[in-house]
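Support request, please re-run this one:
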Amino acid sequence: MHIGDLSRIDLTTSDFSLVIENNLLFVDKSLFIEHFLNETQQVQIIARPRRLGKSMNLLMLHCFLTDSVDYRPLFGNLAIRQSPVWGKAHGSPSFMLDFKGLNAALYKRQIQLMVNEYSAIYASDPRCPQYYRDLYNEYRPEGKSTPDAIKNLTKMARAVTGKRSYVLIDEYDKLLIDIIGTKEYTEVRDYLTQVLSAAMKGNMCLEKGLLTGVMRVSHEGMLSGLNNPQTYDVFEDSVYTGDYGLTKDEVDELCGAADLDTESMRLWYNGIKIDNQEVYNTFSVMSAMRKKKYSGYWSKSGTMDLISSLSSATQKNALISLLVPGTELSVKIDDRVSPAALQAGLSDEALYSLLVQSGYLALTKMGRKSGTVRIPNKELEEAWSDFIFSAFFPNAASALQGIFSILEPDMVSRELEPYLLTMLDELSFHNVPSHVCKDGKRRTHEAFYHNAIFGVLKGGENDLKYDSLLSNRESGDGRYDVDMDLRGVCVIIEFKSGSEDEDLLKLAADAVDQIENKRYGFGSKLPVMGIGVSCCKKRCKVKGRWIAQNASITP
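Re-run finished. Output below.
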C-alpha cells in the first residue's frame, strides 16, 4: 500500500517524518516495526544492498519507539496502526546513530558528539543523578571521547526514565569498507569493537539493538563479542523479506496508479532475491516514476571500486561472461566476508559474496560454499559494462579521445579497428558462452561485443565529452545498438558477431547497411555517421560511412 501524492517524490531524503508531514509518496513498510519487535533476538543485524530503504526504515522505527517526541500521528494511515505492537509506540528511549558519515580521522569525536546530543536532554532533567551529569560534562568538550559512550547513554536514560533503551545504528560497516587496506584499519576496527561490545553485550540497560549495513561481516572481530547477534541478509532472511526494496505487488500497485508499464519496470529494476523472493530497487523505481523514463539510476558505489582494486585478471575475465544476457555462473561463494581478510586479496568466495551482498549480482541458487549468480536486470547490465571495462582498460578514455578527435567515417574506422583488436586480445573468451544460430553456425553472443564497447565508451565520458550516450533504444524502424551524440554528430554503432568462416569485412558493411535501411538516428537533426563493427572472438573489422538519410546536413 502507498500513501501520499504520486506526483511528489523526493529522492534526496530518508527522513520519515518529513516524508509523511509533506504528503510525499511513501510505500508503507511500517510492518517492519512489528517484525523487529516480535523477533526474540536482542541484537539484530540487517544487511541489504544500497538504495533499498535501510535508512528510511530505521528512522521510521525510531519515530515509532521514541518517548522524547510523540510521532504517533504520523502513523495514522499506516498498517502498523492496527498491529498488536501499537501499544509500544512513543514508549521508550530510542537512539538513532548514523555511522555513514564517519571518517577515519574524526570517527571517535563524531560518535561522541552524536551521543552527546541525546545525553544533553537527560542531563538537564531534574531526575538525572549527579553522577551522570558529571559524566556528561566530562565528555561534552569536543575532542574527548570514550568507547563506553553509547553504553553510558543507555544507563543515563534508564536512571531518568526507568526504561531500557533501543539503540539503532545505520551503516555500521561503511567506515570499515572505506578504509580496507589502509594503516588506520586495525585501530578503527578495534575501537568500533569496543563501542559496539560495550553497548550491545551484557548491557542491562539495553532493550534491543539493531545495526544495518551492506555486508555480513560476522567473521570480523568487531562483532565477535555481541553474543552471536542474528544477521538477516540476502543469503538467509525469512523475517524481513519484503521490508526492504519493493515487492512485485507494491510495484504493480504503483505502476497502475501512475499509468506505467509493469513489464518495463520489471526488466529494468527487478531481480535481487531475498529468501528466494525477487525485490525491486526502491530508488530506481521511484526515479523512473518521477522522471517517467526507464534508465540507469543506481550509480556505482565504493564497493565496486574495492572489487576492482582487489580482484585479479582471472576473476575479471570470469566476470566478463556475465555480460551475455541470460548467462549464469556457478561459483564459489561465502555467506559472509571479513574486511580484515580482504586486505590480503580477494578470494573467489569473497568476490562473489561482495557482489551479491552489495546488490550487483542476483543469487539464484545457494549451496554449501557455492552458488549460482547472474546480472538480474537492464540497469545493472549498464552498470556492469561500465565497471568491468573501466577496470580492465583504465587508459581507454585517452585512446578513445584520439580515435574520435576527427569525426570522419574512414578515419574513425581506421583508428578504431586496431584499438578494438588490442582490447579483444586482452580478454579471455574461455568463459564467454557461444550459441548455435539458425543457420547452424556457432557465434559468440552479439551482446557481448555490444556491452564491451558501450562500457569502454561509458568509461570515457569525461574525456570524450559527448552530449549523450544511449544503448539499445528504438529509432527509425528498429533498435540501434549504440548512439553517441558527439560534437554535433550522431554516431550510430551497430555490432555483428561472426562465425569462424564468415567474411568480417562484409559483415561490418552489412551492419552499416542495417543502420541506413532501418533509419537508425532518423529525426535526430544531426548528421549520422554509421559505424559497423563485426567480431569473431579476438578478430574484428570496422566499417563506417555517412548515412544517406541525413546526407544533406553532413558536415
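The CA atoms of residues 190 and 222 lie 7 Å apart. The chain has 21 helices and 21 strands.
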